[in-house]
Amino acid sequence: MATMRWFITGFILLAPPLMADTPSAPRRSLADIRCELIAAPSPRAPDTSFGAALKGADAGSRKATGLAAIYSLVLPGMGELYAGDFSSGKYFLVSEGLLWLTYAAFEIYGNSVRDDARLYAASNAGVSPAGKNDQFYVDVGNFLNVADYNDKKLRDRTPSLVYDPAAGYGWQWGSDSQRLTFRDLRVHSENMFNNQKFVAAAILINHVASAINAARAAIVHNAAARDLLGDLHVSASVLGDPAAPHGIMITVSRGF
């Protein structure tokens, strides 16, 4: 009986050390789990329509509406490029180039026709081109000679408009057909310069329209960034007892 008691006592005394030597899974604290969750790489977004929109939104940068408008006022299309909508801005940029080419073409052609007209007047009516303004050439095209012009101004009681032939303000057309030819050339050159004014107005309108479109593009960009990321919330929580968790729940929510 004494021997049996010693054996049981010895087993009881030896059993705790044996059980203590048995390996067991270490308990992880809530702080350790949270650290691992933060350090872990974020899962890659699936290739869905929402993911494609999220990538295309460039939500990390908001665009200044005023700055986009200023860029397009300086050079049409640049504001749209800044706002990420060059697909519409390129048309304003192309239009700008074409308008300036048209403006230059009218300028070159108008000057060429005007020079031809004045050379024609010098050759066929004896006009001295030095120091003459546009109005003088208008009068040269409307009257056969300076005497007819002066008579008309005197009858109209506007002697201040009379030309002095001795001062180089005289002319004499050989025929009325020559005068009409000169007038047609002069009018044609004036039409080119008038067309130039319309092109200049179109250039101004193109700048303003591009500025408005760039501001719209910036507003749309910022709205898309806000809608896709501004209301997107990601949260994580530990399932179970914090001292003995059995899972992690990740929640993604988006406001509408």
Description:
The protein is mainly alpha-helical and 256 residues long. 66% of the residues lie in helices and 8% in strands. A hairpin with a 2-residue loop joins β1 and β2 (244-254). The chain starts with a helix and ends with a strand.
Helices and strands, in order, run as HHHHHHHHHEE
From the alpha carbons, calculate the radius of gyration and give it in angstroms: 45 Å
Q: What integer is the average pLDDT?
A: 79
Instruction: Give a quick account of the main beta sheet: strands, pairing sense, barrel closure.
Output: 2 strands, antiparallel
Q: What helical percentage do the residues reach?
A: 55-70%
Portion in beta strands: 5-15%
Number of H- or I-type helical stretches: 9
Annotation, overall tally of beta strands: 2
Characteristics:
single chain, 256 residues, mainly alpha, two-stranded antiparallel sheet, 9 helices, rod-shaped, disordered N terminus
Topology:
Elements (H helix, E strand, L loop, with lengths): L1 H20 L8 H10 L9 H8 L8 H10 L3 H6 L2 H40 L8 H9 L3 H10 L20 H55 L1 E10 L2 E11 L2
Antiparallel strand pairs: 1-2
Helix pairs in contact: 4-9, 6-9, 7-9
Summarize this entry quickly:
With 256 residues, this protein is mainly alpha-helical.
